Amino acid sequence: MDVLLTNDDGIRATGLRTLYAALLEAGHTVHVVAPIRQQSGVGHSLTVFEPVRAVDIVEPHFRGTGVYGTPTDCVKLALSTLLTRQPDMVISGINAGQNVGPDILYSGTVGAATEAAHENLPSIAVSHNDHRASVDLLPQARHLVSLASRVDWACLAPRRVVNVNYPAGTLDQAKGVVVCPQTNAVWKNVYTERFDPRGAPYWWLEGEIPAESVNPGSDKDMLNRGYITITPLHFEFTDHDGMEVLRGMAGLTAP
Known about the structure:
Layout: E1 2-6, H1 14-25, E2 29-35, E3 53-59, E4 62-68, H2 71-82, E5 89-96, H3 103-106, H4 108-118, E6 123-128, H5 138-150, E7 161-166, E8 177-179, E9 188-195, E10 201-208, H6 219-224, E11 228-233, H7 240-247
Parallel strand pairs: 1-2, 1-5, 2-4, 5-6, 6-7, 8-11
Antiparallel strand pairs: 3-4, 7-11, 9-10
């Protein structure tokens, strides 16, 4: 299987490097096209007002292309220009930190996977609920590679992203795998005010998803309880019920 591998943490991130090794170990061909710099939180953004540049990275146990751009830039450039043929699958990750609930809208990891899904390619976004760079992710990477090979993509509707999240801790501590919906809880935003050496204020985004707002059985809930979560995502945003409401309003149905 030919796999395009990308992420939003950057081409030197532990999660990407570990997944690269696991894919090669399983006998797959891997093409890495990933951001040179950290790109967490950029969502599905594109570079449009400056050129997109790339550099080849060749190391003893790694080959890839680093892109000075967003994760979506990476996927678009790879599929349109850098690869000689379309890959069989696109995998984005392993991200450092969860991507559940509202994170899906902000995540560059999911953004890259979404771009691939728009091209009707099998697409997986994968994250681990731990930000520590020292964590050994090889067991999770091997599990993900096995999981990806077992998904019957022909049975899923087109343009779907399979969003996978691993709980914090080691793989053998996970309680199992569950397919579950996205939580509709949202972040409670907190901006911490600080001051630079000249006394000018700046703000650092913090915050959390309040535990009491998380839907039971949702991705956030099950991940917190120690399960590996799988959520199929689609990005057709039209509110069809809302369309009917608007059609029924005075003046909005007239030709």
